Amino acid sequence: xxxxxxxxxxxxxxxxxxxQEQSKLDVIETELRALRVIFKGNKGLVQFLKHPRLTVDEKxxxxxxxxxxxxxxxxxTLMLLIDRHREEIMIxxxxxxxxxxxxxxxxxxxxxxxxxxxxxxxxxxxxATFAPKVGKRSLNLTNVIDTSIIGGIRLRVxxxxxxxxxxxxxxxxxxxxxxxx
Length: 181
Known about the structure:
The chain is of the alpha+beta class.
């Protein structure tokens, strides 16, 4: 585990504990999810915030102006990261906070690969079927279209993969035939 990951976890844990004490976990989670969308949609934003020509005060002013409706806990954490020149761990910190929230709620993020877009009913059925298998109450599914699986689905929860795709079954049959020779 890299130093940045360890540091990001510490900031996420501190913000999580502060959110618990202030009874603002849901508010902070909503803000951080919105911020994650902003950072992931604008890949150069973190590099911009790390730019040496921007002073710490300019960076703080930019965030204060952009995120003026955010809670003081979230803003204070972001200001600390800027003060300590840790802009590059903002996304990791947000991800770790969301993981802690998901653990608290009994939710896991998962990616489901299918040939076609899944309906909400299909996503709910997949969540209800696989959540108990990974020890969670529900799954927060992201649907990815992948025509190479031919049919069926492939589900990834953390580092676990459940493969019910046609291409996965064909490759298992191929391995069995090759190993029998």
